[in-house]
Design brief:
alpha/beta, 14-stranded mixed sheet, two-stranded parallel ribbon, 17 helices
Length: about 500
């Protein structure tokens, strides 16, 4: 039998599929670059004229800045032609408006104006700049930038977000040139001056949504703003403020806003030990209130007779009430909680979200006064109260409506879980059980009765093994089910 000829590494030699190797005597293998019009193989490059070689050498030794400048000049010298469809300007403007409604004006308009002269003119249209968010770093945070935008782009702006900016005198400039502003977000802004707030009050006659959270706005400036625009204001956020020393005076002014729907006065510093509220007058003046957040401060109502409380209008439109105490600075006695709850919530039948974390330290009796029958989100964690037999049945009226529940660090939580899972399937989607004493059998029942569950927090649960105690979200829920299944009848 004739011996077959083998090549390198035992591969059969094939003229059509040669194995190449590179050595001193090897020939240069042609590449795809050889088909390029400006490609020159290495052999031919050596034969180039000396003048051409000198030009190449002249580029050596130049700084990066010089090279960049030359490249920029070359690119600008090129005739760039962009063929646009023959559409009227009105059609292009409508297309731009549709894009901006989804992505916002930045950075889209800044990029689009560089395409051609037509798009540059369209990008200047003030109707495209009605809602501007300047918090993502698309532009440099300089007062000169805000001044230029105010003069050239924001004449019709209605909604502007300047969160985390250092404003100084820029707010006055914006207020003077953007008279149609309705929503202004100045949260976390530095150097917020009284003159800027005054200019906002004097020039922006359509103002209805203001966010001064975590700023240094003073009580006098805030009061002046509200007094001038109280008839149209719908949302006020002054949470985490450090200079509202005369907050009681400000609160009396806020109560004059008949269209107010959202009020956030959480975590205020330099306020009285107890903030006194005329709850019934508040309810009468702000009947459209939907969201009330007043956490991490102490409150009490002005003295009223039972008849006066019963005849009050209440907050019939209230959907969210948040009064947690997560600051650790103080605790709140149940007598104060009862007073505030009974008088604020006694006619809030539309309530959907309730947050009283860290407030009730003895029992769940405070929840019995809530008239709402379709509560969707309940947060009662971070407290030392125990879910005991005297209040069994309390969650039954909400078991078919609750979607989110926080029972973290609550004692005897297994009784609440057993009550919630005693009937048919639940619409529950999120549950917080951090630090609770939940056991495996109750956890299995919970997962079985809540098919929509997509968030389970089990950190620091003392009755569970270490591998189970963590947060489970979305697809991780199936992992949790499998882990519990593998544990058997523990």
């Amino acid at each position: 039998m004739p011996r077959q000829k083998r090549g390198i590494l035992g591969v059969k030699k094939d003229p059509k599929n040669q194995i190449l190797y590179f050595g001193n005597n090897g020939e240069e293998w042609p590449s795809d670059d050889s088909e390029d019009s400006d490609y020159l193989p290495s052999d031919l490059e050596d034969d180039q004229p000396a003048s051409l070689k000198r030009k190449k050498k002249q580029g050596k030794g130049k700084t990066k800045k010089q090279v960049k400048k030359e490249d920029s000049a070359k690119s600008n010298s090129l005739d760039i032609c962009v063929d646009l469809p023959p559409l009227p300007t009105e059609i292009w403007l409508k297309i731009f408006q549709d894009v901006v409604s989804v992505t916002g004006p930045l950075p889209f308009l800044c990029r689009a104006q560089k395409v051609c002269s037509s798009w540059k003119e369209i990008a200047k249209d003030p109707s495209l700049w009605r809602k501007v968010d300047l918090t993502y770093g698309w532009i440099k945070q300089k007062e000169e930038t805000l001044r230029w935008l105010s003069e050239n782009r924001l004449s019709q702006c209605q909604d502007i977000n300047l969160s985390n900016w250092t404003l100084s005198s820029a707010l006055s400039f914006i207020a003077e040139r953007c008279p149609h502003l309705q929503t202004v977000n100045l949260s976390h802004c530095k150097k917020l001056t009284p003159d800027g707030v005054t200019s906002l009050a004097n020039n922006c006659t359509e103002l209805r949504d203001i966010d001064f959270s975590d700023t240094s706005i003073t009580s006098t400036s805030l009061k002046e703003l509200i007094l001038k625009r109280f008839s149209e204001i719908k949302r006020i956020d002054v949470s985490c403020n450090k200079k509202l020393t005369g907050f009681t005076m400000v609160l009396d002014t806020i109560m004059k806003c008949p269209k107010l729907t959202v009020l956030d006065i959480s975590t205020l510093e330099n306020v009285p030990t107890y903030v006194t509220i005329d709850i019934e007058e508040f309810q009468k003046s702000c009947p459209k209130l939907k969201v009330l957040r007043m956490g991490n401060n102490r409150y009490k109502g002005t003295p009223k007779t039972d008849d006066e409380v019963e005849k009050s209008a209440g907050f019939p439109e209230l959907e969210e009430f948040s009064i947690p105490d997560l600051s650790g600075r103080h605790t709140m006695h149940n007598t104060i909680v009862y007073d505030v709850f009974n008088r604020i919530l006694h006619k809030s039948f539309k309530l959907k979200v309730l947050d009283i974390r860290g407030r009730c330290n003895e029992s769940y009796a405070v929840l019995e006064t809530i008239p709402a029958a379709d509560l969707e989100s309940l947060h009662v964690g971070l407290s030392s109260m125990s879910y005991d037999d005297p209040y069994m049945g309390l969650f039954l009226k909400w078991r078919q409506s609750l979607k989110t529940i926080d029972l973290s660090w609550v004692q005897n939580v297994e009784l609440a879980i057993q009550e919630l899972t005693s009937g048919p399937s639940l619409p529950l989607e999120k549950i917080q059980l951090t630090g609770s004493n939940i056991e495996y059998k109750d956890l299995r029942t919970l997962l079985k009765k809540c098919p929509k569950l997509n968030y389970v927090q089990l950190e620091s649960c003392r009755n569970l093994v270490r591998g189970i105690k963590r947060l489970y979200k979305d697809e991780d829920i199936n992992v949790l089910k499998e882990k519990i299944k593998n544990l058997g009848n523990i």
